[in-house]
């Protein structure tokens, strides 16, 4: 068959287009999951190699290999491990076949042990029992419709051949060809996929350069180049032998399995760094791929580099050997497909997105050949026997990147082979790590095999032929109820200029303490919303929201936290803000306490001082009495969990303070003002890291009970939940305490607290994966925003607390680093989270009455300062006027709001998706005239794909 002749690579190669295309991707774009499937007939497989699994190192006439010799020398391998028995696959064909059949793989890649077939490397030493072993294995595979993919040489060279200098001896070309000829003749009627060598780069560089592998030769200057030269010629000879003698009758494919790591330039905008990345790939992958898949010769980048350095060293010729024109013609095109592999040791950082880029580089560099991934996997330590969650994440992300390369980029990917079927002898690491989908107990003489969770997961991928879009991720089209409260939120300290000596909050003091806040940022100016009511209201109008959630600054109204002095200027500010909102039909949603406690109260103990309950009630009384005629939606406390847990507040008093404020409003103001009062509770959703492990399931449930239940259970049911009470009591007694660390409510307090709600206010951002750990509560595994579980957590609230009215009072996502107004990650987040809320409402009957995006604009994000950006609007902090600039997500959110959900898709935008420009308004308030200049809003078709370098060209 062969390949078409391709021109040599330029320097740098034209494949640099891969970096130009992919390197500018944001973190979100790199990690965005792609749902889809591979084509019918995609070859799913697993792989092993002879020395790593077979054992029987001297059984039935097998000769010694270089790895036998190497591992029998003390100190060469970790723990002095060796492959003498390994997984004992030489005696356990049936056990191995059972695992393969259970996985439902279509292919099994394994290698032939050259010294098992030819003990001294030559045909004259033929070992019939070795041949019989492979015949049995191949026959059994064919019987079960599993296609053998056979590697002819996977590093275990007969020691007798190494004794004549191994691959540094040119006679090895003919010796290897004779071995391959025998294998084709003997097994080729059933084997249709052949690989001459596995990772020849490793043979040449690690074996003869670094000397870490057999034959343990450390001559990096020249030996690897001579060895590679011979390996390429040997490969070409074996290919032509198959082509000339067997192809017409056997109809198989022959190639070579090459390995490469993806190389990313530090800065894609610096040409020399792109050149360096390209050169690194040419030295690793191109060393062997370029002669075979291009023009029969080494890459020019490699020839120039080695040649120039050789000249500087005073050598008469390059250390990189040259091919004759005849040899180039003989080598070029000696592959029917491109076999590629990539593996990772867990200690090294894995970057799944690199696989997609590597596949694209191969496509661009080698004329879009058919590609089979012949190895891809990750190791875990041998203590991991079944719960190998890390490998599941690896498979999920790496295979998805391969799917992107196929479905989105047109890479001709034909198969994927996971490394490895089972834990095995892992070269220098011995048995200290394992790549297997199955665990092998190497301490047991029978070497029992046990499937890990990853085996079940890989089975699912094979069954589904990829990642079909799950039902829970499919969008739902429809609308929320009439009068749905669409809102966006801020908090006083985060957006207002409030640093006034007479009314400090705890955040003023905290932010002015060096090293407490990122970059030593503070809220002294923040977004200066104190002076920018007009601009803020204009942003709200542009978003089409009908509500705006903001918080009252307790120290702005009561400087020392008590009613001894009321700051009228502070009250007037909130009157002006509320009047401006109502003038454009935006209803205020007011939070009484969003973490900025008056410093004067903190000086006497803050939330740990029982007097704070009355202080908070008095403060609420001032606010209700002054603003309650205009405000119909109140939140007493925002995220008390964070106040208590992160800010070291006192949860017991927070709950009692909330209850007193609710009763105050209920008894004194509700009849006249007609508003509603609730508390906003935050929680991640928690999933068990291992959904089949009860202790992980229990840990996931526990974290939700501790986050949501800590405050929701008393408010809705009058007391702490049993999970919390039991857990904390057990831990307290275990610590030698005489009673639980969790305080108790008196019967009167239970009665007073229970039912102090008009709705359930809920803040939610992400999901965490949980596993049980010997910590006081739980330990979390790094989470990600699983959108579909938004529906689950809303259903949890419905079932746990009697289907209360729910207002989602915060939901959003941030970014760091350079600002791009085309914030596609935020658009994706809101699209999916809001759609899941719609499913909870329409399909599950969850009584959702409103949704609030966090946040209106980039602001001071507490301890992270201004580095974390959640806003729908960007605040240009380099401009003293702090202009508000809409991100593309603002347009998208406004469209969802305007449509009150998600209209059925059509060829043209729905009417609600076309945001018409609006004119200017002049509003008159009863306190003073305030002119609101409302600028036109971009239409549905407006896009803003710019960075701050060109921000002046994108003012909407």
Overview of the molecule:
Helices cover 39% and strands 15% of the residues. It is of the alpha/beta class and 956 residues long. The model is unreliable at 498-502, 774-785 and 918-956 (pLDDT under 50).
Provide the CATH topology of the largest domain: TIM Barrel
- Reported CATH architecture of the largest domain: Alpha-Beta Barrel
Structural class computed from helices and strand pairing: alpha/beta
User: In CATH's first tier, which class of the largest domain applies?
Assistant: Alpha Beta
How many H/I helices? Answer: 33
In whole angstroms, the N-to-C terminal distance is: 59 Å
Report the average pLDDT across residues. 89
Uncertain regions spanning at least 5 consecutive residues: 498-502, 774-785, 918-956
Shape descriptor reads: elongated
Computed over alpha carbons, the radius of gyration is 34 Å
How is the biggest beta sheet arranged? 8 strands, parallel, barrel
* Count of all domains: 2
Helix content: 25-40%
The fraction of residues assigned to DSSP E strands is: 5-15%
Compact summary:
Helix content is 39%, strand content 15%. The protein is an alpha/beta fold and 956 residues long.
Features:
956 residues; alpha/beta; TIM Barrel; 2 domains; eight-stranded parallel barrel; eight-stranded parallel β-sheet; 31 strands; disordered C terminus; hydrolase; EC 3.2.1.21; GH_1_N_CS; glycosidase; Glyco_hydro_1
Topology:
Blueprint: H1 17-22, H2 27-31, E1 36-37, E2 43-47, H3 50-53, H4 66-71, H5 93-103, E3 107-111, H6 114-117, H7 128-143, E4 147-153, H8 159-162, H9 172-187, E5 193-198, H10 200-208, H11 223-245, H12 247-250, E6 253-259, H13 271-295, H14 300-312, H15 325-331, E7 338-344, H16 353-365, E8 371-378, E9 380-381, H17 389-407, E10 413-419, E11 433-434, E12 438-440, E13 449-451, H18 453-464, E14 466-467, E15 478-479, E16 485-489, H19 492-495, H20 506-511, H21 533-543, E17 547-551, H22 554-557, H23 568-583, E18 587-593, H24 599-602, H25 612-627, E19 633-638, H26 640-645, H27 651-673, E20 676-682, E21 685-688, H28 694-717, H29 722-734, H30 747-753, E22 760-763, E23 767-771, E24 779-784, H31 789-800, E25 806-810, H32 824-844, E26 848-854, E27 873-875, E28 884-886, H33 888-899, E29 901-902, E30 923-924, E31 929-930
Helix pairs in contact: 9-11, 10-11, 16-17, 17-18, 25-27, 31-32, 32-33
Subunit structure: Homodimer.
Family: Belongs to the glycosyl hydrolase 1 family.
GO molecular function: hydrolase activity, hydrolyzing O-glycosyl compounds
